[in-house]
Design a protein that fits this description.
181 residues; alpha+beta; 6 helices; 43% helix; globular
């Protein structure tokens, strides 16, 4: 989230309340009422779906300096995924209505919130694109081909590749190893 993080951090710390969550604890369940939005100051959140047969499908991990639970800004405001603490968390929570009011009073905050959502939409579009590949190595090969089309060198960390493709960092590492062998 970069420079946007500072604005959100300040707004959530000033007007919100801190919430600490132990690793493995639930933050919210799919279909719960979505009254609060969270600024993740420390830790990592796992977003996932829970199927009727009990199978969990991890969708993504959200790292510090990001927002979690943006459904609080929508209508109807219901959770669309489950979220739990992958690590120990420090969250700042704000009522969705309160954040909307803050954005109305502070245009810069509103602009940064819109920027956050545009970046998130872009990331989700990338994940949808890479979801067409059933094998991690195909996702990685497509990313590397696309990014190297106009340059000889591609500079990504394994975490960045994982974030763009929707793979886990471990899958990226394993796929990279296979490509170099």
């Amino acid at each position: 989230m970069g420079e946007t993080a500072g604005l959100f951090r300040e707004a959530f710390r000033r007007y919100g309340s801190v919430k600490r969550v132990a690793a493995g604890k639930q933050i919210f369940w799919k279909d719960d009422p979505a009254e609060h939005i969270y600024y993740l100051a420390k830790g990592r959140v796992r977003a996932y779906l829970l199927y009727p047969d009990g199978v969990e499908r991890t969708l993504c991990y959200v790292d510090k300096d990001n927002l979690v639970g943006e459904e609080a800004l929508s209508q109807p405001s219901r959770r669309i995924v489950c979220a739990d603490a992958a690590t120990e968390l420090e969250l700042y929570t704000l009522d969705g209505t309160q954040l909307k009011e803050l954005c109305a009073r502070e245009p810069v905050l509103q602009q940064q919130l819109m920027t956050f959502f545009v970046q998130k939409i872009s990331l989700l579009c990338q994940w949808i694109f890479y979801a067409q590949f059933s094998h991690s190595s195909a996702k990685l090969a497509c990313l590397l081909y696309t990014e190297s089309e106009h340059t000889d060198t591609v500079h990504f960390t394994q975490d960045q590749i994982a974030q763009v493709t929707g793979m886990s960092r471990m899958s990226v590492s394993s796929s990279l190893k296979k490509l170099t062998d």
